[in-house]
Amino acid sequence: MWRSLGLALALCFLPYGGTESQGENFICKQPPDWSIRDQNPMQNSHGSVTVVALLQASYLCILQASRLEDLRIKLEKEGYSNISYIVVNHQGISSQLNYIHLKNKVSDHIPVYQQEENQTDVWTLLNGYKDDFLIYDRCGHLVYHLGLPYSFLTSPYVEDAIKIAYCEDRCGNCSF
């Protein structure tokens, strides 16, 4: 019990949900419109908690992707249903070449999107960096933006942020 309380308090005190580099407070705001190859992954996200992972097809991020799949299964077994997971791979050529390795570490339940070099960078639009996790509530409001070291899936911060977004109405005015 004390461990959970301590983690919840730590999440509450993290500036901007854990990403100190954000110059503007994006918490409780809708995400900017973004798409990859004419697909808007956030378009049908209303009604479910949405987890957006900004991962680069590199060793550490591929490991994170496999842990994200483990987290998805764990939360599902605990009764947390209707959670959408999205992985957005980095736009660089190295990430594009290793995209398949990243995609193979998650199930078909987690789409992995590959940005193209000539499109607007989704990571920049979301004010995100490598290994960031953005957690949106059922109404599409950003509840947490967790960056390193809080986004390591070996730590409980991402899981706790998902549970808070799932169980609480942190941003208010959500009809779901």
TrEMBL record:
Per the record, the major location class is secreted
Q: Where in the cell is it found?
A: Secreted
| Keywords for the protein's UniProt record, in alphabetical order | Glycoprotein, Secreted, Selenocysteine, Signal
Look up the record and report any one GO term of the cellular component aspect. extracellular region
In the record, biological process GO terms are: selenium compound metabolic process
InterPro entries in the record, alphabetically?
A: Selenoprotein-P_N (IPR007671), SeP (IPR037941)
User: A Pfam family in this protein?
Assistant: SelP_N
Gene Ontology terms for molecular function:
selenium binding
Q: Secretion signal: which residues?
A: 1-21
Does the record's keyword annotation contain Transferase?
no
Q: Where is the Selenoprotein P N-terminal domain?
A: 25-175
Q: What protein is this chain from?
A: Selenoprotein P N-terminal domain-containing protein
Q: Which organism is it from?
A: Ictidomys tridecemlineatus
User: Lineage, please?
Assistant: Eukaryota, Metazoa, Chordata, Craniata, Vertebrata
